[in-house]
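User: Just a sanity check before I run the rest of the batch. Below are the structure tokens for the first item. I only need the designed sequence back.
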């Protein structure tokens, strides 16, 4: 066997649970996206003092000859310390920054970008990547596709369908058949626990990892790639209020819901692997970074945008503690929104302009992983997979940054006050929304990029 030309894979895992106390991010008053009635404080208005289960980070090193790629996957809401983590991993592994793909599981029970946590995260990610690089071995792979959707629903259209796809890729060492790593891909928000819960947890992706370890041994490292779930939520959190409000008046989820979610997804994936595994031709390792310009619609003029930029760091968020606008959580949220506002102000606040998002693709023969900073509606993901030139296309959303939701065209055609949250809520705080053309622009661009990298 020509080892130098064979795909080699190494994987490592580290604990990234923060020191306590620290605030959780992902649910609570910080995400009230309108100027309605004041709501009561929740437990999440105070720093967390307990951890239910650890937050983890996995580094996967892919190598073929002199070509190397590192994929970082962490139990975070968004890619905290994005540039710092990528730079630290690139330096530790001796690879260009462009070869580092950093993704979050979109965990709503993780920490914000606060205090010394970014530096700690960079250090842990670099060490984990070094361990993964040192453990590479030639691998072969199998893929299986299962389905489970009875514990999730489309929160924009609760009466409609939802994509319950469960994709599993199993990597084994060539020659020995030893199980090295597994990738799990599913699209449902890891927000099974409501705002009354104030402990750190990896939510159902953590359950998936634990169940797989119980089945195959602790040496098997599992990476959860967060699929297209911009409008998909666990059934334990029903939304009973009108858009663009979200999460308030919802039924409370608990750890029983978390365990059920994880168990059902594992059962669906393992059953598919047992019944219909498909051998993948791993072929050549390729990767690319790309930028896509999406049409946007500004909802106010330049002066109003400037006023939003000046007021409370550029947001109309309701803070955890409105007397303390310097709180770490508010800093993290306002920083993102101010970037959007600055871009829109620079464009002149015109009605139709574009917003550039950065994504990328890692390709292994029959298999492609599409990284995007967007939270995509499941319908968009399903159409891209159907059109993809690859036999297996996996999504890793909330990767390489965060650029809000992208949902179905029909919702952007509605008046703002009638749109579901995914089409207006978060973006409205930065004075814009995507347009009815944006979904097709995104789909055509990524399908074209997939075709180009396969042919190139």
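Assistant: Here's the designed sequence for the first item:
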């Amino acid at each position: 066997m020509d080892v130098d030309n064979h795909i080699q894979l190494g994987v490592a895992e580290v604990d990234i649970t923060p020191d306590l106390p620290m605030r959780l991010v992902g649910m609570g008053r910080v995400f009230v996206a309108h100027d309605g009635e004041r709501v009561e404080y929740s437990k999440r208005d105070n720093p967390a003092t307990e951890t239910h289960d650890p937050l983890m980070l996995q580094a996967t090193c892919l190598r073929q000859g002199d070509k190397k790629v590192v994929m970082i996957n962490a139990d975070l809401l968004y890619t905290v310390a994005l540039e710092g983590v990528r730079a630290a991993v690139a330096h530790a592994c001796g690879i260009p920054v462009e070869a580092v793909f950093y993704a979050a599981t979109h965990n709503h029970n993780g920490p914000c970008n606060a205090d010394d946590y970014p530096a700690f995260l960079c250090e842990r990610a670099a060490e984990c990547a070094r361990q993964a690089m040192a453990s590479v071995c030639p691998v072969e792979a199998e893929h299986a596709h299962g389905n489970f959707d009875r514990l999730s629903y489309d929160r924009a259209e609760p009466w409609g369908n939802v994509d319950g796809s469960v994709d599993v890729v199993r990597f084994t060492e060539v020659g020995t058949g030893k199980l090295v790593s597994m990738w799990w891909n599913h699209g449902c928000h890891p927000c099974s626990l409501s705002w009354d819960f104030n402990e750190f947890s990896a939510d159902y992706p953590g359950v998936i990892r634990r169940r797989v370890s119980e089945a195959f041994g602790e040496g098997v490292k599992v990476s959860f790639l967060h699929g297209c779930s911009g409008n998909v939520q666990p059934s334990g959190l029903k939304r009973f209020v009108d858009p663009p409000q979200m999460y308030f008046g919802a039924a409370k989820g608990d750890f029983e819901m978390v365990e059920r979610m994880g168990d059902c997804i594992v059962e669906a994936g393992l059953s598919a692997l047992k019944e219909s595994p498909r051998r993948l031709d791993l072929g050549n390792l390729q990767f690319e970074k790309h930028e896509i310009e999406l049409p946007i619609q500004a909802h106010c003029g330049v002066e109003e945008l400037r006023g939003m930029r000046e007021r409370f760091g550029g947001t109309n968020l309701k803070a955890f503690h409105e007397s303390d606008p310097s709180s770490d959580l508010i800093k993290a949220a306002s920083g993102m929104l101010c970037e959007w506002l600055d871009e829109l102000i620079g464009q002149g606040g015109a009605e139709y302009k574009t917003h550039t998002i950065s994504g990328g693709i890692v390709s292994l023969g029959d298999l492609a992983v599409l990284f995007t900073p967007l939270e995509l509606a499941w319908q968009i993901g399903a159409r891209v997979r159907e059109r993809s030139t690859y036999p297996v296309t996996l999504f890793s959303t909330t990767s390489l940054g965060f650029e809000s939701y992208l949902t179905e065209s029909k919702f952007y055609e509605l008046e703002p006050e009638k749109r579901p949250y995914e089409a207006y809520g978060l973006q409205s705080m930065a004075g814009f929304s995507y347009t009815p053309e944006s979904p097709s622009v995104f789909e055509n661009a990524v399908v074209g990029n997939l075709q180009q990298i396969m042919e190139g």
